[in-house]
Amino acid sequence: STYRIASIPGDGIGVDVTAEARKVLDRAASAFGFGLEWTEFDWSCERYAKTGTMMPEDGIETLRAFDSVLLGAVGFPGVPDHVSLWGLLIPVRRAFAQYVNLRPVRLLPGTRSVLEGRTAEDLEMVIVRENSEGEYSTLGGRHNAGRPDEFALQESVFTRTGVERIIRYAFELARTRSRRVCSATKSNGIIHTMPFWDEIFAEIAAQYPDVESEQMHIDALAARMVQRPDRLDVVVGSNLFGDILSDLAAAVTGGLGMAPSGNINPEGDHPSMFEAVHGSAPDIAGQGIANPVAQVLAAAMMLEQLGEKAAARAVNSAVETALADGSVLTPDLGGTATTAQLGSAIADAL
Ligand code: NAI
Ligand code: MG
Question: pTM to 2 decimals?
Fold first, then answer.
């Protein structure tokens, strides 16, 4: 079969790493006998700077026709970050019910953790982030501007449907892994939404007696991720907590250049979208030295979701082979190779 893929390279290093992911996927497609039909869109902060919008008005409708979306990263100095988030990423995630943001991390060969004495097994985790509601909300506002009693109010939205489906996803995923789920909460400080989250977590945990469950306050959980990462496997959190934990998880394993993510519509009735956890990295943009591994691994997650499981496994192994070989590493991994050289080494390892 042939899959129609929308590619949105975006800004900065998003463009470089997406080119490498595409190179690797094209090689995988010819090796495994399926087709990939790419359509590229220039939706980005650069486009915003020129036209005033991140994507055309019918952008969502355009994407609907695709089997999947591969996104680089968006963000450009001078364009406020909330513009890129609310002008592109959040509308896509919500329009296509991509309510799971899946962020697996593991220590890859040839790289080392910032944590001393940790094995690859200790550091294998997956953050399941709620991706459609929660703290990322437009409800609220600024009041009494210019007065001494000025204030800002920001509301969160947690629906029963939204919380149930993400927690259920985490338990189902745990059944395919370690059978352990840890839920991030803060019900001591946040007294409406978090007790609601905890209650639903307990209800669903009761339906999975074969899966070990626990909940931790987000602060203690962050500390555990650094001190006892071996005690964590599937970690489920709200939109904000999951976002923070996944950068932390990436940082304690191989760094941001190694962490992929999928914005997944589990029902498969709309396209899912895959991207690296990292952003557009303006500090190294245009130099051709970004690490493409995160984006290549995101592309492998895309293959997995499209049902091309053997090809997905092959891409993951090719990344491991290239990293283990160690002769072609980007500067963040201690080497001197370019983005394209590491991308080609991965493609060749296929
Ligand atoms: P960032 O992830 O772009 O960069 C953080 C640090 O990690 C930088 O020092 C960067 O050089 C390094 N880094 C990141 N990816 C790397 C890679 N592949 N290889 C080597 N080094 C890498 O985060 P930052 O600086 O907070 O944000 C920059 C821009 O990206 C902002 O405009 C932000 O809004 C945007 N952003 C976009 C995201 C998206 O499109 N989903 C996600 C996160 C940030
Ligand atoms: Mg983030």
Answer: 0.94
